[in-house]
């Protein structure tokens, strides 16, 4: 019930962390969310079955205790999966881009409330008690979810700090390294497209440029001296947002994104530039609108 929401809190405190804008966490993307809720289901089921943290009246149960534990573990897992899936697929891209710990905590509160409500309604399915639908049991279920969830989150934080210390890592965790303008990461970056089949991983350092083509983007990369071109169903704006953590990837034209590290030569004047590369004969324009931004970042080799 609480592992996915516990992960939300397993970030040590740092000044301004609550308002620091980060990209929508990868752990809530579809390819990772299924793993999280599976672990959540298993952990909650084992905790309920073996430790019985709450008072249980076996005589009132319609089914075996094993079945009750399965239901209590399955329903919250489904709620977390559906809620976070809908959030990650939300059309409100600005909300996802400007993700903060405050927003994550608010969603945590909402998730706890939904889980508490579902546990309350589940009582009528599991128990024969005639007072199942009452304010008394409503309060008990909501209270139990928030208390157990808080304890579990604190446990995850403590465990994370312990393992960081054991491995010699610093326990001062940044809000999200993807939110900081850094040099290129060696690991490929997962890029989410409009449809799952077009999702892909991008070695950002290998990117030459990307060109908008209607509702698609043609992505040009170079690997071992060979230029590759892939057409992806993603808008240039969406791609730009997902590459916002990389200062050398910039919009240079309404239809182009450019890896400024790959620029070999440029020509032009105050009206605009034309960029050339060593690896291909393709040219990329820098429009007048983006000249100031380009000039502030581009540093030609001596």
Can you summarize this structure?
With 302 residues, the chain is of the alpha+beta class. It is 43% helix and 17% strand. The strands form three sheets. The chain has a five-stranded antiparallel β-sheet. A three-stranded antiparallel β-sheet has the order 8-9-10, with no helix packed on it.
Please estimate the helix content. Answer: 40-55%
The span between the termini is: 58 Å
Number of helices: 8
Sequence of strands across the biggest β-sheet: 5-4-3-7-6
**Sheet/helix structural class:** alpha+beta
Mean pLDDT metric:
78
Largest sheet: 5 strands, antiparallel
- Poorly predicted ranges (pLDDT <50, ≥5 residues)? 1-15, 91-95, 167-185
- Specify Rg, calculated over alpha carbons: 25 Å
Shape: elongated
SSE string, helices as H and strands as E: HHHHHHEEEEEHEEEEEH
β-sheet strand percentage: 15-25%
Q: Tally of extended strands? A: 10
Description of the structure:
- The protein contains eight helices and ten strands.
- It is of the alpha+beta class and 302 residues long.
- Strand 4 and strand 5 form a beta hairpin.
- Helices cover 43% and strands 17% of the residues.
- The N terminus is likely disordered.
- The strands form three sheets. Strands 5-4-3-7-6 form a five-stranded antiparallel sheet. A three-stranded antiparallel sheet has the order 8-9-10, with no helix packed on it. It has a two-stranded antiparallel sheet with strand order 1-2.
